[in-house]
Specification:
The protein has 559 residues and is mainly alpha-helical. It has one domain (72-117, 145-176, 212-538). 67% of the residues lie in helices and 4% in strands. The protein has 20 helices and four strands. Strands 1-2 form a two-stranded antiparallel sheet. α2 (72-94) crosses α10. It is globular and about 90 Å long. Residues 37-47 have a biased composition (Pro residues). It is a multi-pass membrane protein. Choline transporter.
């Protein structure tokens, strides 16, 4: 038996930061009995156990301890953007000119050589505005639309929970039952519109027969593409169904995410609302001046010179905040699922969501801001490249620049993939997480870019079918209880859009769960341990599926 001091020294957990000083591959830990051979490593000389290399016992797992702040410069830069946006916004409210909306009520006074206000014109304009608003509010279409959308939003919560429960226990049945409706629903709506428009005199006059036939054929061609995609990926559906079932089980054991993630979205909307108010009031900063044109003077609004710059600042802040919030939601989802995955029993860890929230908006907030900034820059640059492509500017230099930019953006996407998931697990900085994730997946012969496109397409088809059935039900109810006429199709279409947006958000969360479970499986494989047998039973088939009759159903870039 060793001494107490030796036991304490041996059992002390090794920090992840010691990996940088090792000459071995990052976070490498040789395993025995692994499905894939480890790279040969020269045997180190025998030495005292207390002086052994700390990287030999290094293992990746969820970091429950206190985490240091990472990527602080990007957090400070983001806070500076936000503070400047709010500071100038508050200034614009107190510095506003209320005469902005009444420019037409001002006339030029030659005696004072300035613009003066006509109060009678202002009163008549205010009365007309109030009358128009009252007429709009009393519309029956407006009433039915508001109530339909409110009811749809309320019902979307139990619909999401029911869908999650069905995907957890009956994934295969749900997918194979709804799969034919991926074809039936578009064909039904296409043929229904064609017949209804042909029978309606107003619609047939607006759309001649040739145009109706072209729309009918075009939709049928799209349906044909969907059929081809299903047939081409048919051999992959079985494994994809099992992956969706595993992710649904993981999400069902962490239902607190269904409360936290929407609340984060509501918080972002409230944050956006304040900036929009600032933008509105910033337009009121200026003055009404007289402008001479052809010897005649008119009163025009002259905006303060700082307002356009503030618009640019506020829009950039909003876009950066949007991408950062999306990354924060991924971080919270990944941290919560990882705590469940690395728990020894099947019980949910205590306060897992709260711990993930504290880490996301605390030590890792700079990492999230950096990731959001990279995603934002990629989106903006790609939008600029697409805009330049539409202009079709000739020249070999322009073509080379576009290729270089696309290659750079793809490299950033490659770098960003799984980085936030790994940072949520370990608490490492962004660049460290990107490097460690790459080496972790490469060391275990896994794909460095794994996005289960088949599962996403299947889930997208499922929510399309469910939303379409709901829209048909709404249309039938409105036809029986209201006299909206053809306007009921507009109300039903908006209800369909709202429900598919909510269910699409649910699919987005489920995709994040799939990515997180994949990273946790890679960590398990790297450590030679099995925390969740049901996950290993499914994800272990991924390399086998890639090596079989065709590549695995994912957008993969093997390394």
């Amino acid at each position: 038996m060793g001494s107490t001091e030796e036991d304490t020294t041996t059992s002390k957990p090794t920090s992840l930061y010691d990996a940088a000083s090792s000459t071995e591959p990052l976070l490498f830990k040789p395993t025995t009995g692994s499905a894939y051979p480890s790279p040969p490593i020269e045997e180190p000389p025998q030495s005292d156990p207390s002086e052994s290399d700390p990287t030999q016992s290094l293992q990746i797992s969820f970091n429950y301890g206190p985490r240091p702040f990472k990527d602080l410069p990007f957090l400070i830069l983001f806070l500076l953007f936000v503070l400047c946006t709010f500071a100038f916004g508050i200034f614009s409210i107190f510095h506003r000119n209320d005469n902005y909306s009444n420019v037409s009520a001002f006339t030029y006074d030659s005696n004072s050589t300035s613009c003066v206000q006509d109060t009678s014109f202002l009163s008549s304009q205010l009365w007309v505005s109030e009358t128009s608003f009252f007429a709009l509010s009393s519309s029956s279409l407006w009433t039915y639309l508001v109530w339909t959308l409110v009811i749809t939003l309320v019902l979307s919560v139990p619909i999401c929970l029911l869908l999650l429960l069905l995907l957890k226990h009956y994934t295969k049945q749900i997918v194979y039952v709804l799969l034919p409706f991926f074809i039936i629903m578009p064909v039904f709506f296409d043929v229904y519109w064609f017949v209804a428009c042909t029978l309606s005199s107003s619609c047939s006059d607006a759309f001649p027969l040739v145009y109706r036939i072209l729309v009918l054929v075009f939709i049928l061609l799209i349906v044909g593409v969907i059929v081809w995609i299903i047939v081409a990926n048919w051999h992959r559906i079985e494994l994809t169904v099992r992956i969706i079932g595993v992710a649904s089980d993981a999400l069902s054991r962490n239902l607190g995410l269904f409360l936290v993630i929407p609340l984060l979205t509501v918080g972002l909307l409230a944050y956006y609302a304040s900036i929009v108010v600032f933008l509105v009031f910033s337009r009121f900063n200026g003055k009404i001046v007289a402008k001479e044109s052809n010897g005649e003077y008119t009163c025009v609004w002259k905006q303060d010179s700082w307002v356009p710059a503030y618009f640019t600042l506020a829009i950039l802040t909003m876009l950066w905040s949007l991408t950062s919030m999306v990354e924060a939601q991924v971080y919270v989802t990944s941290g919560t699922i990882a705590q469940w995955y690395f728990s020894k029993d099947d019980t949910k860890p205590h306060r897992s969501v709260r711990r993930s929230l504290r880490n996301a908006f605390g030590p890792s907030s700079g990492t999230i801001c950096l990731s959001g900034l990279l995603v934002f820059v990629v989106r903006v640059v790609r939008a600029a490249v697409d805009s330049a492509r539409e202009e079709d500017v000739p020249g070999i230099v322009n073509l080379v620049l576009r290729c270089c930019v696309n290659a750079l953006m793809s490299a950033i996407d490659f770098l960003n993939k799984f980085t936030i998931n790994f940072a949520a697990i370990t608490g490492e900085a962004y660049c460290t997480s990107a490097r460690m994730t790459y080496e972790l997946l490469r060391r275990n012969l896994l794909s460095a870019v794994f996005v289960e496109t088949v599962s996403t397409r299947l889930l997208a088809g499922v929510i399309f079918v469910l939303s379409s059935v709901y829209a048909i039900a709404v249309c039938a109810i409105l036809k029986g209880v209201s006299d909206l006429g053809v306007n009921m199709y507009t109300v039903a279409a908006l209800a369909w859009v709202l429900l598919i947006l909510v269910l699409g958000f649910f699919v987005h969360v489920l995709d994040n769960v799939i990515d997180t479970v994949y990273i946790c499986y890679a960590i398990d494989k790297d450590r030679g341990e099995v925390y969740k047998h049901e996950v290993h039973d499914v994800y272990f088939q991924l390399p086998i599926s890639r090596n079989s009759r065709s590549s695995y159903p994912s957008r993969t870039l093997d390394v």
